[in-house]
Amino acid sequence: MGFLQTEESKRMEIEELRRMLVACAGLNRRKDDEEFRGLRVKMNSDEDDNRRDKVVCVTSGVSFLSLAIVNKLLLRGYSVRIIVDNQEDIEKLREMESSGEMRTYNNNLSVVTAKLTDVEDVVEAFEGCCGIFHTSAFVDPVGLSGYSKCMAEIEVKATESVMKACARTSSVRNCVLTSSLLACIWRDGTKQDLSKVVNQDCWSDESLCINKKLWYALGKLKSEKTAWQIAEEGGLKLATICPGLITGPDFIQRNPTATIAYLKGAQEMYANGLLATVDVNRLAEAHVCVYEAMKKTGFGRYICFDKVIKREDEAEKLESQVGMPKNKLSGNTNVISMPFELSNKKLSSLMSRTLRPCYNQF
Fold first, then answer.
1. pLDDT at residue 360 greater than cutoff 50
2. How many CB atoms lie within 10 A of CB 265?
3. How far apart are CA 155 and CA 152, in angstroms?
4. Residue ranges of the domains in the chain?
5. pLDDT in tens, 22-54
6. Does pTM surpass 0.70?
7. Rg of the chain over CA atoms, in angstroms?
8. What's the rounded Cα separation, in Å, for the pair 142 and 140?
9. What is the DSSP letter of 76?
10. Which residues does 247 contact at the CB level (< 8 Å), separation at least 6?
């Protein structure tokens, strides 16, 4: 009987162990399910954040550069809101959509009307957007003067409004501002400690721009400084891109005001090794690259160019493209030459390590 009792005890112990194992397994399955559901919730939250990050706004939506940026963003899966300031621009966009020049990509494109100099108007336009691309694109209303001192003041006012709106709009996290290489290169060459390397740390001299009546350079310089001041005061994450002369298909017809204005003082820029150009699509890629890098370490200023005009044949080609007389850039012997070196290493390094996979799309 003792043996039988021992066998019975064993069976009871085994049964109890089985029940415990089943209970533990059920508990573990519930725990795993809960963890999985928690992971799914986290994943969904991350996906929501990613979707929010993909909603951006581009100002001056029908400009040469803005359209290129919009197309790059749409290719990258962003939902893009374009700001225009009149009905005529909306009609232009409709015509471009009909002709295939503007690709909407699954209706991820919308248009709003707002005055960039009106903060309240801009706040309303920005609501719901995570990122802002302010291209600072303005057109001479007269169409003759290229870019006047008055236009420089308007540009500064618009940038001030845009930056204040960014700081006041709860959804906005990052802003990319298009400045200009001209905000870096117009410096007093008589200073003994002037660096021969012109990079993102260099700033043009405001008084020099005024004395030379370089209103486009002045507008970009003051706009960028205003943007940095407001960003620092409002805790807004900002990156600025300082491009050379923007070129590309039919650029003089599609971007006449900025082209004419940029080339004021071009003889001196050429003589000093500072006359640089950048293709509009390359520049648009740089904007998207910098914006996506802002989630980690991408911030500050970036100089952007892909060619420095150094040879006479290059100067002649540019003269021909913009309708300048031959030797207008390279033939002036009265310009004092003080060669400098342009450096875009910061941007080149960023683009080479962050967005390489996306370049294959372009």
1. no
2. 20
3. 5
4. 46-265+272-305+345-359
5. 444 443 433 333 333 343 333 344 445 566 668
6. yes
7. 28
8. 5
9. T
10. 277, 278, 279, 280, 321
Tokens at residue 107, please? 């209706």
Q: Is 47 in a helix, a strand, or coil?
A: helix
Percentage of the chain modeled with pLDDT above 90: 60
Q: How many CB atoms lie within 10 A of CB 302?
A: 26
Each residue's pLDDT tens digit, 145-193: 568 888 899 999 999 999 999 999 999 999 999 999 999 999 987 776 7
Residue 279, amino acid: D
Q: How far is CA 255 from CA 62, 246, 248, 285, in A?
A: 11, 8, 10, 18
What pLDDT digit, counting tens, does each position of 310-323 carry?
999 999 999 999 99
Q: Yes or no: is domain 46-265+272-305+345-359 CATH 3.40.190.150? A: no
Which residues participate in catalysis according to the annotation? 220
Tokens of 62: 């029908």
* H or E stretch covering 308: strand 307-308
Q: Any alpha helices (H) in the chain, and if so which ranges?
A: 2-53, 64-75, 87-99, 119-126, 149-168, 182-185, 206-211, 215-234, 251-254, 256-262, 266-271, 280-293, 312-322, 345-354, 356-359
